[in-house]
Amino acid sequence: MQATDPAAARNCCAPIDTFEKIGFSIPPGACDAHAHIFGPYAKYPLALERSYTPVENDAQRFLWHLDRLGLARGVLVTASACGTDNRSVLDALAHYPDRLRGVAVCGQDTGAATLASWREAGIRGLRFNLYALRGKAVYKNGVGLPALETLAPAMRELGMHAQIWVHAPDLLDLAPRLEKLNLPLVMDHMGRMNAALGAANPGFRKLCAMLADGLAWAKISGADRNSNEKPGYEDIDAFALSLLEANPDHIVWGSDWPHINYFDQGDVPDDGALLNTLLRWIPDERARKKVLVENPANLYGFRVN
Hints:
There is one protein chain. By secondary structure, this protein is α/β, with parallel strands linked by helices. It has one domain: TIM Barrel, CATH 3.20.20. It has helices spanning 59-69, 87-95, 112-121, 145-158, 171-179, 202-212, 223-226, 237-246, 271-281, 285-300; strands spanning 10-11, 31-35, 52-53, 73-77, 100-104, 123-129, 132-133, 136-137, 161-165, 185-187, 216-219, 251-252. The strands form three sheets. An eight-stranded parallel sheet has the order 2-4-5-6-9-10-11-12, sandwiched between helices.
């Protein structure tokens, strides 16, 4: 069941429309590998049960976000507020097949034929929410590990990856089951752990080891969510640099636009500032092209010109 009653969850702030000037030349074909769209709600209502109520930002607004930053491509991830309703993402892929790819969310009863049709439409992975703190799920509507284990054979057959939203310290317990799936594993937001835990955290080191072994990819996204040093996010540097050192061929960058789950307008991050973190993390222009263009092309199946 779907609804758009704003009383169902806290109302998020809108993304900010101005941004810090980008401090480097954006290479052709650059990709924002993690973003969400919402609405239009008259056509694609939110899930009745949800943890937050985002401002409506549809596919056209996402293209505006890409264009203002000078990015050619984007990856849309079905957000938890949408439940397992992937229609808005699929509609966006149908309208912009050259610029967009998607990551869907679905239950374990989803058939192989449906997954195959999504794959043809531009869905390249399925997202699984293993993100918990002190044993409690942080967001509603997450599809968990049992569903991933059920869907894994069909995903392997179709060449789809599993996008994993997980608290890196939990990887020590979860990794044996994840690695057994024989699927590419794409880890959200650098392991979504507070920077105060440190890059020497055993779970984060396990994430780095999974990259080094070629078992996983990582999105160097979510600096704003993991940092305690805003607006520069300098305390995230060690995490991003560790992941890049582990396997520079398995790293992509994402903005996480439109930055849901912020409830104070002053906290909403600046997309330009987020993109400019790459100046510190990847000062070499050739290496930045790998992360912004070549790696996402390989992972999501974009055409390389």
